[in-house]
Specification:
By secondary structure, this protein is mainly alpha-helical. The chain has 5 helices and no strands. The chain has a single domain, classed as DNA polymerase, domain 1. The longest helix has 15 residues. The chain starts with a helix and ends in a 7-residue tail after the last helix.
């Protein structure tokens, strides 16, 4: 179970220096983080340590992330974004 403090911390760190990342990460974090298991929470925290440009390139499928575990999480984020969820303004 994700604590309220941990959720808010991950949500805050999902706000990036690139608006394009914000529209991909924030809706995912808001809706999906509470539903993910503890191992996915750890993966998401690792994902947030990536540089913005590298993370964006992976999320828009320009490059494949070298870490297979993170590739799976990146695919979940992409699928969620493709589902048509509302994005922040």
């Amino acid at each position: 179970m994700l604590s309220d403090i941990a959720y808010k911390k991950m949500l805050w760190h999902s706000r990036r220096g690139m608006w394009e990342l914000d529209i991909l990460l924030l809706p995912f974090a808001e809706k999906m983080l509470p539903q993910l298991d503890a191992s996915d929470h750890k993966l998401y925290e690792r994902l947030l340590t990536e540089e913005d440009q590298d993370l964006f390139a992976c999320l828009v499928e320009r490059v494949q992330h070298p870490d297979k575990e993170l590739q799976t999480l990146i695919a979940k984020i992409r699928d969620f974004a493709a589902s048509g969820v509302a994005r922040p303004h």
